[in-house]
Amino acid sequence: MKQNKFLVYSFLFLIYGVFIFYIFKQVLVFLNISPINTTDNWQIYEYKKENNIIDKLDNRFNHLKVAIENRANNYFPFYIPLNELYQNINYQTNKLFYHNIPLKINSDQEYLFYNKDHDFYYYETFYTDDELEERLNKQVNFFNNLAKQDIELYLYLPTRYEITNLKDYNLNHYLYSFIDKLDSNINVSYLQINSISEYLNYFYKTDHHWNMHGALQGYKDIMQLLKENPLPNLEVWENKKQKYYGSLAKTAMLDQTYDYISDVNYKGEYTVLVNDKEAPKEFKPRKIALNKTNKYYDYYVSYYNGQYGKVVYHYFHNENKDNLLIMSDSFAWSIDYLIASSFNNTHVINLRYDEFKNNTFNLTKYIKDNHITKVLFLYESGSTMFDQYNYNFTGRVY
Questions:
Q1: Taking a C-beta distance cutoff of 8 angstroms, is the pair 270, 340 a contact?
Q2: Partners of 349 in beta bridges
Q3: What H or E segment, with its residue span, contains residue 22?
Q4: Which residues contact 247 (CB under 8 A, 6 or more apart)?
Q5: pTM of the predicted model, to two decimals?
Q6: Pairing verdict, β 100-105 and 111-115
């Protein structure tokens, strides 16, 4: 009997102890004594340029090793339900103190919040004002030096929530400062958002990417920037076969809101080379992978998969048109082939993958070798303005 009482008291102590700990922790956060939360742990294997069979085997081994480690971390029995329980307690206790609910710090040291009035997640940067100003000036100098080459340089910025003027603390003034400091021969535009309802029409509530409504508006803006006509009669549709809990929901480990993957009704006539070879079947399958056991499976990546260093589109019957180079991240995946429809050859370079991951990129030589006349930078706005994820444009692109 005493042993049963001990077990009951131990269980109650554990349950109430955790609850009291969270309340105490949030008081410390509210008083700026303690950080909001801990970081995520998700590894990406280091790609080595394959010069011989040893390099190929080394890449395969490292890819397998990291895949196993990630599965151990993310698919361990009860990993998701235990983390959901943890984050739900965190979320519920934070609701007592905050209007915009702080949830977590992600692996890039950004603060994740949930806006309970409008039901969406957003990030705030951890950089100080001085750091942002220093990073902005470094990026401006990079683009101004690049514009001295004999090319037409274009920048387009998809303005996420933290860059808009829709919240009390925002980086909107940096947007205008960035544009004002660019040389006049650089062509620049950005996604204009005038209300939260417009923002939520353009971006996924649970993911850091724009949805197809936002991507399509971005495509139209880019076509105007490039002085080209956009494709007519593009219609957006949602694939409602599968709920989508995006990257922000995955970081939060919360499922109180969800999205659906969206796309447009366009299939052009073109060929694609990926890393100078015929595109593999994994390249942009544009199909929903159903019945995944992981609730937080990344359907955006699996649907629009463009995780490759070099992609080249060649549109039929466009031989007399210019060649374009797009320097991009995953924001381009949903519209790069639409942009490419206005050009002969469109080269898409992503510094995060394959041979470019840990190497420099001789943009000047690439432009000359491939007869490129226009260069478009299409990155998440924080990357273009601040290099927030340390792609190191200045040190790697010349």
A1: yes
A2: 310, 327
A3: helix 2-30
A4: 206, 207, 208, 209, 298, 300
A5: 0.81
A6: antiparallel
Distance of alpha carbon 388 from alpha carbon 382, whole angstroms: 6
Structure tokens at 218: 């971005």
Q: What does the alpha-carbon distance between residue 95 and residue 283 come to, in Å, rounded to a whole number?
A: 41
Question: Nearest 5 degrees, angle CA 135-CA 140-CA 144?
Answer: 150
Bridge partners of 376, per DSSP, are: 154, 326
Give pLDDT, residue 99: 82
Angle between helices 2-30 and 79-94 (to 10 degrees): 60
Q: Which helix (H) or strand (E) holds 155?
A: strand 152-157
Give the number of other CB atoms < 10 A from CB of residue 272.
17
Contacts of residue 55, Cβ cutoff 8 Å, sequence gap at least 6? 48, 49
Of 63-77, 120-134, 173-187, 363-377, give the lowest mean pLDDT range.
63-77
Cα–Cα distances (Å) from 390 to 45, 107, 139, in that order, read: 17, 13, 11
How does pLDDT run across 147-170, given as a tens digit for each residue? 998 889 999 999 999 999 998 889
Domain boundaries, the chain: 2-97, 129-396
3-state secondary structure of 15: helix
> What's the sign of the alpha-carbon dihedral 315, 231, 384, 117?
negative
> For residue 283, which of 274, 292, 296 has the smallest C-alpha distance?
274
- Please calculate the CA angle 66-35-329 and round it to the nearest 5 degrees: 45
Cβ proximity of 94 and 111 under 8 Å: no
Q: Which residues 6+ apart lie within 8 Å of 70 measured at CB?
A: 42, 43
Give the pair of three-digit tokens for residue 85: 């329980």
Strands 152-157 and 374-378: parallel
Q: What is the DSSP string of 246-312?
A: -HHHHHHT--SS-EEEEEES----EEEEETTEEPPTTS---------S-TT--HHHHHH----SEEE
